[in-house]
Amino acid sequence: MRRLRACAALLLVLSACATSAPSWNELTVRNPRLANLQRAAELPWTDGGRCVVREAAQPWPVLVEKCYRTLDRDRIEFHDTTGRCTVASADAAAVGIGFCVLAAPEIAVGAVIVLGVVVVGVAIKEAMDAYELRHAYPEEAGTSRGTKVASREAEAQRKPKLKPEPAGQDWQPPVPPVPVDRTGRASCEPVPVPHAGEDDPHNECADKFPPNRYPGMDVLVGGVRFDALQVGVRKLWEIKTHRFDTYPGFIQRREIERELEQIQKERTAAAACGYDFVIGVSTQEHKDALIEVDFSLDVVVTGCKR
């Protein structure tokens, strides 16, 4: 991993000095995340592109460093046609020419040859479709450009307060209906809604651990309910507080299967709207069980008690 990072750092420097084709530069300046998604869509990924979607906002060499392990390298041939990877870095040679070639700011013609037909990863396709949808109707794009949030906050500041806010408590935003675009699909604008159910320990963990931008509230994004939107960052959370380590083995397996269905739905919605997605669990055993079936998950042990 240390060699991968050294190679990625070298390629970031090279990318700053490289001269790219005008069309590529224009796309990158306009939306680097979309450029990375389109570039990655031409490659085969073993995880459907979930890692790529999660890291798409990073510079391309960093994305390759993070997601290289999920690349279906059995279907790719790498050729160092420029000789840069052979002579530029001993670290690149040590970790393999493939990583260096793929992470280059511009992939030379014939440098990467994919065997067979590439089917665009599900997660990548959904993220690109969501981007096209949001920009087809920019006036309804919600937080894709932040215009609606800014206007709402400005309007809230202009309105006189009818009541003094209780000391020591965060203001709770109103709960509007879920916004939709012209096609009837839910938008990416985060909409706070009351916590589902009355599980106090669970709700307390969701409010305090990330911490939650909307205490006392879940949040709807892309039509999907999440337990929390973390303060200060575009990161959505699913919180689990049950004592997974006390379950019998067969119950644990069934629970993981059920959770993965929910997690996949939430992660896809979060990625399509440009959010990171984290699962918070109470125990290390629960985290290990989730990572065992899907190592690309971002799982954090909260230690929240029931």
Instruction: Provide mean pLDDT, rounded.
Output: 75
Number of domains in the coordinates?
2
Figure out the total of helices.
13
User: By helix and strand content, what is the structural category?
Assistant: alpha/beta
How far apart are the first and last residues' alpha carbons, in Å?
38 Å
Shape: elongated
How do the strands line up in the largest sheet?
A: 6-7-8-9
Nearest-angstrom radius of gyration?
A: 22 Å
- Relative helix content: 40-55%
Content of β-strand: 5-15%
The SSE string, one letter per element, is HHHHHEHHHEHHEHEEEEHEHE
Largest sheet: 4 strands, mixed
The strand count comes to 9
Low-confidence stretches: 9-29, 87-94, 136-156, 158-185
Descriptive notes:
The chain has 306 residues and is an alpha/beta fold. It folds into 2 domains: 2-125, no CATH class; 183-301. The chain is built from 13 helices and 9 strands. The protein has a 4-stranded mixed β-sheet with strand order 6-7-8-9. Strands 3-4-5 form a 3-stranded antiparallel β-sheet. The protein has a two-stranded antiparallel sheet with strand order 1-2. It is elongated and about 60 Å long. Residues 181-304 form the DUF6310 domain.
